[in-house]
Design brief:
3 domains; about 450 residues; five-stranded mixed beta sheet; binds adenosine-5'-triphosphate; alpha+beta; about 35% helix; seven-stranded mixed beta sheet; BirA Bifunctional Protein, domain 2; Rossmann fold
């Protein structure tokens, strides 16, 4: 049956509702400050959410920093000298067009809604005025107007202002990159869509410095290298890049002021095709501006002692958008047989194994001490071996399997009364639901091997 647009929209809304409910119920994401009535569009990450986030950040760092000879890491301050934001253009340019609906008083971004109020549909609104997205604060005990500071709206400037420090300290030769993972703050006009757009979020960014290009092909080859790396990374997250990602070549009039070329990697979220990551060629805009504004010579001397201002290719990745896209791609509903011969819907988070917050669940068939004791011992041994595990002895084994499927746990280890005799356990695979009998003393090695498989 061909689904009409209304049905498809309903399905997508349902999917988002289910994902949001699952995230909350199982401890991935909670509403921020909830006991005080919450705070709009602020989210806290629970025990599973923080594991998922940490897994993403650690893998990204491993792939793009530790395993690459041409990238080094850095961690810079969240609040920087205000002159940084003057030179980067953020004080002047980092704004969105804000309008107020005269009918229902809703505030919204004029560029996102084709001039119609997203709340009441009215076209009766104020002229657009530029609203700077940087969060303001002040340094020191008194706000006397002379000590205004800003929370960084991106991590990138930390890399630019440290370019000289890093290149001198590491003696890296271009092309090389500086990477950073950290928080960024934007006073977004219209946050929303769960964790998609929030006012504080984390970025994983690389500023990749290249020689001043003599021809277009000189920078395009690096741009293409990073485009491929980004696609490869999305594949590692379990995203089907051919079907779920659209590469949007951003036209000149929509590009940031510094960019010569930008690709937005759009992910097909249930609420629409939206930017997941970006890749930009920032030319020599940043280092040139910081050189001029600071008076520090940020040029680089090549082998022939020529002074050049390097150009920059910037791949940028949002952590929370990675979490959301990953969960959306992994969320699956399947029909499965129940123990009594019926059929039920099985919700499975088919996360890549490396991403799953919990790798193994240990489930004794009965709470009785004779089974619970060896099961708890195995659970502790998993933890000691560095395998993230969970112990669960409540409710039927079927329900416990379903709970683990919902959070994406790749393996369940079940202790039954037979285990006391044959010193073996049943290992169940999340995706195939196949079960294997494995000797208890071999189960850690067995699972370590399995968890390494892609
Ligand atoms: P958008 O067009 O969605 O506002 P942007 O083009 O302003 O995004 P960039 O400045 O390129 O975004 O930021 C780099 C990355 O940081 C984005 O690709 C995204 O993954 C993430 N990001 C940006 N803004 C937010 C936000 N408000 N909440 C969560 N993640 C964000």
């Amino acid at each position: 049956m061909v689904k009409n647009i209304k049905e498809k929209k309903q399905e997508s809304e349902n999917k988002m509702e289910k994902i949001t409910a699952l995230a909350k119920k199982r401890g991935f994401v909670f509403a921020g400050s909830e006991i005080y009535g919450g705070m709009a569009n602020s989210w806290d990450y629970g025990p599973l959410g923080v594991e998922l986030k940490n897994n993403i950040k650690a893998r990204w760092w491993e792939k793009f920093v530790k395993r690459r000879a041409d990238v080094v890491g850095i961690e810079t301050a969240l609040i920087m000298n205000t002159k940084v934001w003057e030179a980067s253009g953020h004080l002047k340019e980092f704004s969105d067009p804000l309008v107020d609906c005269k009918d229902c008083k809703e505030r919204f971004r004029a560029d996102e809604t084709e001039g119609k109020c997203p709340s009441c549909g009215s076209k009766n609104h104020t002229e657009a005025r530029n609203f700077n997205l940087m969060f303001k604060t002040f340094i020191g005990p008194v706000d006397d107007g002379s000590n205004t500071a800003y929370f960084r709206p991106e991590t990138a400037q930390g890399m630019f202002v440290n370019f000289k420090n890093v290149s001198e300290a590491t003696r890296k030769k271009i092309p090389f990159g500086i990477a950073q993972i950290g928080k960024a703050f934007r006073n977004e006009i219209t946050p929303g869509n769960f964790i998609f757009r929030t006012r504080e979020f984390e970025q994983m960014e690389i500023e990749y410095f290249i020689d001043k290009p003599k021809t277009k092909a000189n920078w395009e080859k690096f741009f293409e290298m990073w485009r491929k790396e980004m696609v490869d990374w999305m594949g590692e997250l379990g995203i089907n890049t051919k079907e779920e990602i659209v590469e949007f070549e951003v036209p000149k009039e929509e590009r940031a002021h510094y960019s010569e070329r930008t690709i937005d990697f759009m992910y097909k979220f249930p609420f629409g095709e939206k930017e997941l990551y970006g890749l930009a060629y920032r030319t020599d805009f940043d280092l040139k501006n910081h050189s001029n504004a600071s008076g520090e010579d940020l040029s680089y001397r090549d082998e022939k002692e020529n002074k050049i201002i390097p150009h920059v290719i910037e791949p940028t990745f949002g952590v929370e958008r990675s979490v959301l896209a990953t969960i959306c791609s992994a969320y699956t509903e399947e029909l499965a047989k129940t123990a009594d011969g019926g059929v039920e819907t099985r919700v499975v988070l088919k996360l890549p194994k490396w991403l799953a917050p919990i790798k193994v669940a240990v489930l004794p068939l009965s709470k009785k001490e004779e089974l619970a004791k060896p099961a708890k011992k195995a659970y502790e041994e998993f933890l000691k071996a560095g395998i993230m595990a969970e112990y669960d002895e409540t409710q039927s084994i079927g329900k416990r399997y379903r709970r683990q499927d919902e959070i994406g746990t790749p393996y369940c280890v079940t202790f039954d009364f037979e285990s006391l005799k044959d010193k073996a356990v049943t290992v169940r695979d999340r995706d195939t639901m196949k079960q294997e009998r494995i000797e208890i003393k071999k189960v850690i090695d067995y699972l370590k091997d399995k968890l390494e498989e892609r």
